Amino acid sequence: MTSAPAPLFLRRLFRRKLVLLAAVILVFAFALALLAPWLSPFDPASMRMARRLRPPSEVNWFGTDELGRDVFSRVTWGARASLGIGLAVVVISISIGAALGLVAGYFKRADAVIMRLVDALMSLPDILLAIFLVAVLGASAGNVVLALAIVYTPRVVRVIRASTLVVRELPFVEAARALGVSIWRILFVHVLLNVASPLLVQATFIFAYAVLAEAGLSFLGAGVPPETPTWGTMIASGQQYAEDAFWVVGFPGVAIVLVALSLQIVGDGLRDMLDPKLRKAL
After folding, report:
1. Domain range annotation of the chain
2. CATH 1.10.150.130 assigned to 6-39+64-281
3. Residue 86 has what pLDDT?
4. C-alpha distances in angstroms, 229 versus 39, 51, 63, 126, 137?
């Protein structure tokens, strides 16, 4: 981890205008999700067939969909659902992946067992594994979170294991062992703090992957139920009307692209700042 104070670190991180713009977009998206009940002018589930497929106007800023529902209201509530699913996937996959990665990197006997399981999971395409898991578990927001967490946890395990293999051989870890510090304290205090940088970067990338994967699963009909407004279900339900009413899929599609791209850009910025070699090159 960088030893620079937080304000200095943020100034260096946001020195790149593209990273700053991406961070602003993410703050706006999260604010939209948190304030959805107050920002939405209409009930996202309220159907008004007399106003179906209306173009953007002063009344309906993003137009209406095939059932007369306000697209702007559904985009704001969809932000809450899509970002909530992505955040839950990040918390679960990072927590479990970091714990397994620490154990695999520190204990040689456990390494073989854990890494064979990780290799088996990573040998399957992400989206196919997610579809299979949702099909087995059933279509719901909770099961989508669980399926995506299972899919992305192996990525975290491999990254943390590789970092742990290096950190465990450093002098301060050997000194802690010589002083009789417990193994679990060494793992979760001394080692974890020194592998937090790649863990933070992985969190941003997994967040982006989870948002895209949720949209893909919903588009294929294997994700969140259609009655729940997410960006993915909006695109899935409006795809047949896209040619005549572009706004039905255009606005949720733009939201997905902006959020996923911004997360990737911020992740790249964090990686460059937290890696000493890359930081010197900036």
Report:
1. 6-39+64-281
2. no
3. 93
4. 15, 19, 16, 24, 21
Contacts of 5 by beta carbon, 8 Å cutoff, 6+ apart: none
What was the pLDDT predicted at 1? Answer: 41
Read off the pLDDT of residues 214-241 as tens digits, 9 standing for 90 and up.
888 888 877 788 788 889 889 988 888 8
Report how far residue 76's alpha carbon sits from residue 282's, in angstroms, rounded to the nearest whole number: 37
239 token code pair:
């795809």
Q: Where would I find the H helices in 51-195?
A: 71-106, 108-122, 126-137, 141-167, 171-178, 183-185, 192-194
The residue type at 156: V
Query: For the whole model, what pTM was predicted?
Result: 0.88
Kindly state the DSSP code that residue 259 receives in the 8-state scheme.
Answer: H
Name residues of the chain where pLDDT drops below 70: 1-6, 8-10, 12, 275-282
Cβ atoms 201, 195 nearer than 8 A? no
